[in-house]
Amino acid sequence: MGYRVVDTETVQPAEGRPCEYRGLTEPADLSQLALNYFCAEPGEQAPLAYHYHETQEEAFYVLSGTLHVETPEGDLTVPEGSLFAADPESPHRAYNPEDADDAVELLAVGAPPADDDAVPYDPEDE
């Protein structure tokens, strides 16, 4: 058995991301899933550009604000307290629109964890 408590405020935000990103997988010593915190101000996307994962299921739980997700089937609005889930090979782009009143905070979970599983998606290629 093993247990850990992680003070997420001690996890330094990663550099070079389009919004605040704190990777929680490693500090929590997780091996079967990826866990990340994102905070996107108005006009920022979270966590990546338009993409899909080849093998990873991904879910975003909205802690505060309203998340917007672009998909080939249309745009989705995910309010605070709701969950967005994407199957493998399902393109999506999560963002906070320019005209949003507040930042959007979310917890992202992906399984299995995959550092190099994200594939860029361009809707123009369809």
UniProtKB/TrEMBL annotation:
<dbReference type="Pfam" id="PF07883">
    <property type="entry name" value="Cupin_2"/>
</dbReference>
<protein>
    <submittedName>
        <fullName>Mannose-6-phosphate isomerase, cupin superfamily</fullName>
    </submittedName>
</protein>
<dbReference type="InterPro" id="IPR013096">
    <property type="entry name" value="Cupin_2"/>
</dbReference>
<dbReference type="GO" id="GO:0046872">
    <property type="term" value="F:metal ion binding"/>
</dbReference>
<keyword id="KW-0479">Metal-binding</keyword>
<dbReference type="InterPro" id="IPR051610">
    <property type="entry name" value="GPI/OXD"/>
</dbReference>
<dbReference type="InterPro" id="IPR011051">
    <property type="entry name" value="RmlC_Cupin_sf"/>
</dbReference>
<dbReference type="GO" id="GO:0016853">
    <property type="term" value="F:isomerase activity"/>
</dbReference>
<feature type="domain" description="Cupin type-2">
    <location>
        <begin position="38"/>
        <end position="103"/>
    </location>
</feature>
<dbReference type="InterPro" id="IPR014710">
    <property type="entry name" value="RmlC-like_jellyroll"/>
</dbReference>
<keyword id="KW-0413">Isomerase</keyword>
